[in-house]
Amino acid sequence: MRLTGHRVKDGYGLTESVSEKIFGLNPNLVITADAGISDEQMIEKLSDAGIDVIVTDHHLIPVEGIPKAAVAVIDPQQEICSYDSKIAGCGVAWLLMTAVAQKLCATQEQKQVLHQMLDYVALGTVADLVSLDSVTNRYFVKKGLEFMNQKRRPCWQIALNEKIAGVGDLGFQIGPRVNASSRMTGRADTAIDFLISEDPDQVTCSYEFLDQQNRKRQSIENKILTEAQKSVTRKESVIVYYSAENHAGIQGIVAGKLAEEYGIPCIMLADVGNDIVAGSGRAGQFLHLKDALATFNEKHPGILMSYGGHKAAAGLKLHKNHVEIFQHKFCELVRQQLKGQDITPYKSTDGALNGFINLETYFQIEKLKPFGMGFPTPLFYDEMIATRIRVIGRTRNHLSMMLDNHKAVFFNALETPDSPWPVNEGESICALYTLNLNEWMGQKNLQLIIREITKPEQ
Ligand SMILES: [Mn+2]
């Protein structure tokens, strides 16, 4: 029997309303995935009713310790656990499955089925934004992409078409669509159907629905983002933005975009009914968001109904009447914490390649793939002379040029075709770029993809 929660009504983890649904099914055993480590209370309730609970999670262990009423807790964040603590919740669940298979002496064929499930683990790993600076996650993603690209499941046949999927496709194409239905409708059923159904017609139908919800999500997101940007006028050290137009399912994405754009922490707040407001925040580069909320909660008890999360992202709930005081006091606290710190957003690079801008370097870097969260595509920074600059592309806003004697392309270099060029013929500039391969008529050539051009320091 499948039991799916409601993103807003049930909330995150083993909440009261989720427990009620579980009681309705009257199972002997509950195994959590990606949740449960902070849900001692509900686990105790289930356990008192004779239901065993096994927790599998990857979130930080709460100060009160692991839930004691659980019959087992599998979470690599535990001090006694020496396993890679960077894996996502789906990775923990999958590892438990492999351990059980091993214990039950699974056949080679059964193990194969389990191994093939790494496509799902890869999707979850990328979509949960855990770091690829972990051999385990890199293995999950590398293998998972391999399986996806074999296109055995209808979902990959339909979502990927002829395409060979990479980390970017998981993060920007498939992940957002899979998440769209729960963001927009609260329910994830269609996403699950899309991923696991073996009936191509049903998968196509589910995919179309997800795609449509995703487009809806994009348009609402753009609207909220534009509105929020209007309100951020001065150079502030933190944004706490509440509007009746905000959307609980989408605000995490908007917070992320604002935090990136302004380089400062951002919390978005939205109504979720019954005079309750839910918030979703992203930390930017200079703050530990969950710690900041914990400090706030200590200093101003009784305002936050709940909060949780990590360094980079966190969520919270409060009563509508407390929104203003929270905005005021939290901004004050962050301002104090960041005082004296240089909070100019920075871009870190891998330095200059100097004389090593060549195909050999490109192929060496290729071997380090997959790139993604916490392990980005190497970004280099060199001073070079730009020549043979010309506008390319149907939209006439990309630039092609030679940098020293290397072919280079700068996508979206111009806002409009008439915008001034960021570089003049024969000028010496500093380019932030990645290495890329251009295959044309059977010829493999190196190409620099320019991300940013700045004037050299005098
Ligand atoms: Mn997670």
Structure description:
This protein has 458 residues and is α/β, with parallel strands linked by helices. Among the domains are: 151-230, no CATH class; 232-338, Roll (Diaminopimelate Epimerase, Chain A, domain 1), CATH 3.10.310.30; 354-454, OB fold (Dihydrolipoamide Acetyltransferase, E2P) (Beta Barrel), CATH 2.40.50.460. The protein is built from 14 helices and 13 strands. It has helices at 16-25, 40-48, 89-103, 108-116, 118-127, 135-150, 154-160, 167-185, 189-196, 200-231, 251-262, 289-299, 323-338, 359-366; strands at 29-31, 52-56, 72-74, 239-242, 266-271, 276-282, 304-309, 313-319, 380-392, 398-403, 406-410, 428-440, 443-454. A five-stranded mixed sheet has the order 4-5-6-8-7. Strands 9-10-11-13-12 form a five-stranded mixed barrel. α3 (89-103) runs antiparallel to α4 (108-116) and α8 packs antiparallel against α9 (189-196). The protein is globular, with a radius of gyration of 24 Å. The N and C termini lie far apart (68 Å). Manganese (II) ion binds at residues 34, 58, 88-89, 128.
